[in-house]
Amino acid sequence: MSSWDDVRKEYYRRLGASVTKALEGNGFKARYVETGNAAREAVLELIPPGASVGIPGSVTIRELGLPEALESRGHKIFHHWGVSLSPEERAKRLMDENASDVLLTSSNAVTLDGILVNIDGSGNRVSGMAWASNRIIFVVGINKVCRDVESAIQRIRDVATPMNAIRLNTNVPCKSVGHCVNCNSPERLCRAVLTLERVPTGRDAHVILVGEALGY
Which terminus of the chain is less hemmed in, N or C, by CB atoms within 10 Å? Predict the structure, then answer.
């Protein structure tokens, strides 16, 4: 009899195969890998030497140690996390992220029929996903697979947003109660919703689906 872990891994492989096939049908270049280490190597293979890399807000990318790995290879990294920036510097950094040679990010959710769903507060991340001329790479943990767009949006509101509110210490109700209450707080994090039903016209878009729980 297979171990509990073997069954889980085989389930993830089968689910991963289904989702990557759906993503490919929607124009994404998709692959499934079993581990975070394999995902990191796959990302590094997709980024040409010397390319600049924009990394908008993504716990997944940082969990995988990709900023450090890219910096060690000599890439110019643009990101607005973890640094003290003036409002003007932060605005420029956000623009630099989306204007880089490669945009490296995750997705808040992916559906069984291969749609990527994301929600932003400022809109910088979803704007870069929706339109740019650079290569975009999504790294998505298997924990973010949802049946459809409706359940994807609900997952983001009830899981990802409260966790991010805790991480950012944002004064919103979901941080306290652990689920969405559709607040009207001035610090509300859920403001711009993007569903990528197909790859935007002319975009080189890659999705790496990982058989581990990553990000929020």
Answer: N
